Amino acid sequence: MNRVLKKNNSTVGAVPGAVVHIGERKLDAAKVTVISYDAEKTEKRVITRLELLDSLDPGMFHWINIDGLHDVDLVQQIGEKYFIHPLLLEDIVNTTGSPKIDSFDNHLLVILKMISTSSAENVFDSEQVSILFGKNLVITFQEQEGDVFEPIRERIFTGKGRLRKKKADYLFHSLIDIIVDNYFIVFDKLSDIVEPLEDEIMDKPVNRHAHAILQLKKQLMFLRKAIWPLREVVSAIMRDHVDLIEPDTILYFRDVYEHVLQVIDYIETSRDILVGLHDSYITSLSNNMNSVMKVLTLIATIFIPLTFIAGVYGMNFKNMPELGWDWAYFAVLGFMGAVGIFMIIYFKIKKWF
Question: What's the CA angle centered on 239, arms 177 and 101, to 5 degrees?
Fold first, then answer.
């Protein structure tokens, strides 16, 4: 999972509203795709020249998707064309920020993190998605191609559900909703990682388990930072922007708000689970060490009297009558064996092993 720990120095001292891309370039060339729809028809076009946006039917709703935030010239041209405030554009191209909501001049901007499962083990991919809502218009800004919006596109083209019967504010809601719903898939994968790890730790803890727990903690911290602010974002939409969004769509945002609270609850639960997992690792490691030390102590205890007996007959004094007996060697060995057997039986009776 990508995490940015320091702010890009290019923003230090910059003029407020300066459009400077901050983050990793994830695409060679930017791409602009437009989906236009109403209750009767749909259209999809890849825009190669921004002048083509002038030909969009004003009677339809339009979803403009831009892949490639590194192309700040394109972002600025889109901003000029749709009168988007420079401060909003500045937030859009800064991919290091936390989720937030802002509005200027009848434009409502929501910035959030789109998190998905990765093909790599125990890793989540994330990218910033900015969703700008205006009259009859929704513009999404993404860092790269590939997203979780395909079910929404399918609903637009097939006419299933309410999307084509509602205004653009419902599309605005649907995009936020599907990103939030995808968080549940992420936490399902997190559970799939944690459960077998817990079984392995209880069975036989090894050093790699400590590393795995540490990595999961780091990823959970990132998820918390990416998701926690959404509670205030969705709350602000319902509380402060009712003039931009239809009353019946506000009801659907309440459902999104409940989902955000569930995800936050998952975050806190997962954090407790990882803390418990780390404690289980330490406990299992300590128990295994105690078992090893117990066995070694018992072995040492058994050999202490045997070593004493062997030491007595190794002192080489001249006046030791037993040294002249023909059967003395076998008698001493038998006595040492009897002492060892007696101690083992005694330990068994005491249940020391």
Answer: 60
Under CATH, to which class is 9-284 assigned? alpha beta
Question: Which residue in this structure is represented by tokens 């999972």?
Answer: 1
Separation CA 303–CA 83 (nearest Å): 88
Rounded to 5°, the CA angle 218-221-224 comes to: 155
pLDDT band at residue 284 using 50, 70 and 90 as cut-offs: confident
Cross-sheet strand order for the sheet of 107-117: 42-47, 31-37, 61-67, 137-142, 124-134, 107-117, 100-104
* Of the listed ranges 93-97, 193-197, 287-291, 299-303, the one predicted with least confidence: 287-291
Q: Report pLDDT for 183.
A: 92
CATH of domain 294-349: 1.20.58.340
Is the pLDDT score of 279 beyond 50?
A: yes
Q: Are 353 and 298 in contact (CB under 8 A)?
A: yes
- How many C-beta neighbours within 10 Å does residue 103 have? 18
Q: What is the DSSP string of 30-98?
A: -EEEEEEE-SS-EEEEEESSGGGGGGS-TTSEEEEEEE-TT-HHHHHHHHHHTT--HHHHHHHHBTTSP
Q: Which amino acid is at 99?
A: P
Q: State the number of CA atoms in the 13 A half-sphere of 105 facing the CB.
A: 9
State how far the Cα of 6 lies from the Cα of 95, in Å rounded to an integer. 12
Residue whose tokens read 């395909």: 150
Q: Residue 57: pLDDT above 70?
A: yes
Question: Tokens 């559900």 belong to which residue?
Answer: 161
Reported as a pLDDT band with limits 50, 70 and 90, residue 325 is: confident
Strand-strand pairing, 100-104 and 137-142: unpaired
User: 54, 12 in Cβ contact below 8 A?
Assistant: no
Q: What is the mean pLDDT of the chain?
A: 84
Q: Residue 317 and residue 333: Cα distance in Å, rounded?
A: 19
Distance CA 164, CA 150 (A): 15
Dist. CA 282–CA 201, nearest whole Å: 9
Domain ranges of the chain: 9-284, 294-349
Q: Is pLDDT of 3 > 70?
A: no
Query: What is this structure's pTM?
Result: 0.78
